[in-house]
């Protein structure tokens, strides 16, 4: 993992100078030359106390050229909102959906314009906000082209498989856009990497296995490696108690009998109703309080871990949220 972090830090130095006044076409043609000159340009900018004025960002949906240090930002992803807030970068509007994490509660106030939902931007409101930058993720990806007509739009990958790598890549993109905050983002990566390593070493030494399940009212889904909760397996080092779980955004349907049969050392529980604010949600703890579940190894060893569902389901990929996720798992292993 040290190699990954080194690559992240090196990437910040190399990408900070991929700027200029040209559009997307010139950025593509000059990538090799810009990369070769990046270290020299970065040192020159640092010595003169200046930052690049324009950057071309490459992301999953294409390339976006924009001025650095934008001030009017609209965001349609809570994980990205978390990262911006951590670095002291404010926004003018956001898409909303589900519960805001406690550490993001200020964004529920009237000072921040609601620009639609996390899935469906309100294009008229977004246009009225006159943004310098729009940040989206998978939930609003279908609106990328339309939003790009309003302002430069950048797609932030929602961390799934290899969570920490995706997390680093997103912070690298934000460092390109906000070079004045690059040190904040790089320090966050290093700090979190160290905490993940400690958990990973303890988990792999004990050879614990586990499963991640989501309770959605009266239904259960299980998530394996390659899922949106793969941080449990890929980064923390738990062996999946079932290696054949289907990769799916919403998980694989599970039953109490299935969980009792797999009988993992650790069972990590996410309550979708709690994360989305569903008024009629039955509650994960009540749902799992039955004879089959109480007879499992995880229940006997007090290793059924009820995770902060808002952080894990809605704010995944944020810096404060990821720190909390790591701390939560670290506190549960015993």
From TrEMBL:
Q: Which residues form the Fe/B12 periplasmic-binding domain?
A: 72-334
Query: Which keywords annotate this record?
Result: Signal, Transport
Q: Where in the cell is it found?
A: Cell envelope
What InterPro entries does the record tag this protein with? ABC_transptr_periplasmic_BD (IPR002491), Bact_iron-sidero_bind (IPR051313), FatB (IPR033870)
Task: Name any Gene Ontology BP term.
Answer: iron coordination entity transport
Task: Please state the span of the N-terminal signal peptide per the UniProt entry.
Answer: 1-22
Choose one Gene Ontology CC annotation of this protein and give it.
outer membrane-bounded periplasmic space
Query: What is any Pfam family matched here?
Result: Peripla_BP_2
Source species, domain of life? Bacteria
Q: Which family does it belong to?
A: Belongs to the bacterial solute-binding protein 8 family.
**What is the official name of this protein in its record?**
Periplasmic binding protein
Gene source species = Lacrimispora saccharolytica (strain ATCC 35040 / DSM 2544 / NRCC 2533 / WM1)
